[in-house]
């Protein structure tokens, strides 16, 4: 099993180009199922989840031609309406084929995702919404089996804000008969990016970027050309890395307008940030100051950045409180950080971090995607060598992270 070896204590200096957003690219690839025409995508990140999603879509009959960070996909020959367990278990986002398959082909078989390292993560709201649109949905042998001769528009109020739930229902609604209103919709920029692509494909959507999406169904969608938005989580991860290790880096291909909370917290931590239209520069010369926060839906503090900011707090001056409100089990990195000498206690959904003067490298285990990133950040700041095991989690969502970090002076390499 591959690992990352990091020898901490090197300041970071130079430029890193940010890749396209994983959480925008995955639903956007699934949108290719909604049309028989060709959808041209650029700024698609090269990471494991994208490869897994392409493998799944190709199994269904979607044609996808890849060239560097561009993909042209054509759904004219899609005929296998199934997402098997082997795919869904490695990538929960496979659930995003449910809405498009049902809307265009009237049937879908999607393995029910189980829980994962960060929480139980049910998909009841996806099912509730599709049922409200007239689908007949049964759970058969571990699969969601959905059927609908033609979906019908409906007013759907989800019990909680759900990102992929909103995306699935949005895609389904584009080809439903009549009007669908999605209340309590997720406002994450990745949902907006998907909605913008769907609009370019001929979908009639109003309220894009708000928590109330109104969709007038159309008979068919057509091809389009779209650039995936830059990854705000990858951006924030590298900003946390320089905040923890010190140095001066400039990130390019970024969208600073979707990073407000992260930027505020980094400034509070003492990072000097300057930015232009598509770049941000971070300079850090001192020990970071501790920052407290609670995760919430966009535009609040993202749960996907919680672990990386916690790594910063471990070596910060002062104590902090980090409350996780989205997932019930997203503190798996805490025990690993404590193995590096951090001082973190957990009270319910809150981690209380007493900043220590320095961390000391040790072998640690990655338990999920962002936990892995946080351990890399901790390793960059620690004295001596940290070896992060199970980095297949990291590879799911980061595009060549160790190459990008070594290019700015980090001592990091893949082993095993
Ligand atoms: C591929 C992708 O975009 N993944 C992101 C997406 O995950 P994902 O879309 O799976 O997360 P959701 O927004 O759906 O989850 C939010 C909360 O709602 C709960 N819930 C959700 C749906 C449902 O039917 N029932 C239910 O109870 C979940 O268990 C969780 O507690 O949003 C999360 C929250 O910003 C991010 O951490 C993930 O990186
Ligand atoms: C939790 C994440 O992804 P996923 O929903 O694909 O598990 C993430 O990107 O941090």
TrEMBL record:
SUPFAM superfamilies: EPT/RTPC-like. InterPro entries: Enolpyruvate_Tfrase_dom, Enolpyruvate_Tfrase_sf, MurA_subfamily, RNA3'P_cycl/enolpyr_Trfase_a/b, UDP_GlcNAc_COvinyl_MurA. It comes from the Bacteria. Keywords: Cell cycle, Cell division, Cell shape, Cell wall biogenesis/degradation, Cytoplasm, Peptidoglycan synthesis, Pyruvate, Transferase. It is an enzyme of class 2 (transferase). Residues 7-405 form the Enolpyruvate transferase domain. Phosphoenolpyruvate binds at residues 22-23. The keyword Transferase applies. Coiled coil: none annotated. CDD domains: UdpNAET. This is UDP-N-acetylglucosamine 1-carboxyvinyltransferase. It comes from Noviherbaspirillum suwonense. The gene is murA.
């Amino acid at each position: 099993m591959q690992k990352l070896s990091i020898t901490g204590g090197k300041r970071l200096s130079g430029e890193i180009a940010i890749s396209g957003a994983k959480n925008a690219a995955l639903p956007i690839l699934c949108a290719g199922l909604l049309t028989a025409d060709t959808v041209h995508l650029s700024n698609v990140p090269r990471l494991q989840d994208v490869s897994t999603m392409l493998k799944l879509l190709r199994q269904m009959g979607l044609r996808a031609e890849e060239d560097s960070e561009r993909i042209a996909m054509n759904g004219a020959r899609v005929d296998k309406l199934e997402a098997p367990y082997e795919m869904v278990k490695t990538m929960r986002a496979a659930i995003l084929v449910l809405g498009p398959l049902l809307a265009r082909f009237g049937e879908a078989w999607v393995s029910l995702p189980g829980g994962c390292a960060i929480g139980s993560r049910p998909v009841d709201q996806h099912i509730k919404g599709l049922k409200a649109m007239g689908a007949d949905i049964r759970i058969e042998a571990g699969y969601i089996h959905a059927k609908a001769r033609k979906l019908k528009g409906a007013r759907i109020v989800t019990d909680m804000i759900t990102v992929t739930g909103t995306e699935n229902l949005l895609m389904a609604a584009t080809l439903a008969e009549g009007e669908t209103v999605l209340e309590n919709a997720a406002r994450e920029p990745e949902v907006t990016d998907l909605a913008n692509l769907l609009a370019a494909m001929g979908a009639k959507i109003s309220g894009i970027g708000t928590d109330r999406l109104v969709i007038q169904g159309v008979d068919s969608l057509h091809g389009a050309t779209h650039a995936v938005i830059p990854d705000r989580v990858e951006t924030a991860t590298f900003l946390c890395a320089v905040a923890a290790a010190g140095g001066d880096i400039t990130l390019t291909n970024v969208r600073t307008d979707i990073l407000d909370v992260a930027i505020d917290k980094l400034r509070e931590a003492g990072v000097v940030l300057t930015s232009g239209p598509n770049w941000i520069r971070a300079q850090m010369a001192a020990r970071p100051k501790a920052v407290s926060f609670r995760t919430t839906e966009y535009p609040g503090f993202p749960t996907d950045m919680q672990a990386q900011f916690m790594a910063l707090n471990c070596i910060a001056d002062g104590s902090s409180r980090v409350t996780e409100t989205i997932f019930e089990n997203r503190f798996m990195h805490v025990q690993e950080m404590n193995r590096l000498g951090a001082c973190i206690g957990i009270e319910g959904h809150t981690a209380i971090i007493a900043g220590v003067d320095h961390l000391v490298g040790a072998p640690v285990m990655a338990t999920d995607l962002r936990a892995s990133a946080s351990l890399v950040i901790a390793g960059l700041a620690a004295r001596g060598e940290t070896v992060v095991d199970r980095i297949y989690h990291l590879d799911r969502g980061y595009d060549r992270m160790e190459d990008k970090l070594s290019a700015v002076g980090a001592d990091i390499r893949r082993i095993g």
